[in-house]
Design brief:
This protein has 232 residues and is mainly alpha-helical. The chain is built from 3 helices and 5 strands, in the order ββαααβββ.
Amino acid sequence: AGDTATAQAVLLRIDSREAELSLRETEARLAGLVARRAELDARLAMVDRQTGSQEDAQRARLEAARAQLPAAQAERLFAEGEFARAVQLMGTGSGTRQRHEQTRAQLETATQRVLAVAAEIRNVEAQLANAGAAREELTVLRRQLDAIEPMQRELAAQRDRIRLEIRDRTILMPFDGVVDRIFVDAGEYVTPGQRLMLVHDPARVRVEANVKETDIRYFRAGAPVRLHVDAY
């Protein structure tokens, strides 16, 4: 007691080791969520890019295959007509065996062409469906990101509360003044609301007086008073 202290000087520190451990734990959990969110963002971008390009490629293949089908069908229809005429000519004796075999081979080739194009269309449609299913992973990733956001906000708020608690455990001198009395000893347990120190600003003199209950009625804010100091 009696020591002078400047404004913002540390007067007293309340043990904050447990709160600091809790702060480090919360910060570690928060850093883990931040890293997880960055990982999900990167995964989301990669899946979007890969599946999007796959879908575009399969759609292009499907359009190309579907564009080939009418020509293949027309080719087969023409081959069927040629073969039918060759068979008819063979029946009347006007056709040749060579023409008959040639048109039959052309018909088989045209038929296989139609079947191949149809199979390609079905194959590309299946791959396009798979690419669309792969893009469903984007929905899963977005839901995981949505779940992380409130957890991150909650941990950030918890971190801020702990920081405030640690800060409040350090008692600073509010002004340039004098420590009049100390009511606690080092290592002593304290409770909320407990009086710890008494300080005053020498530039602002304060007098505490005990007034008789019968005299309180004469006191008014701003009223002048006369003091007698029995001191050197």
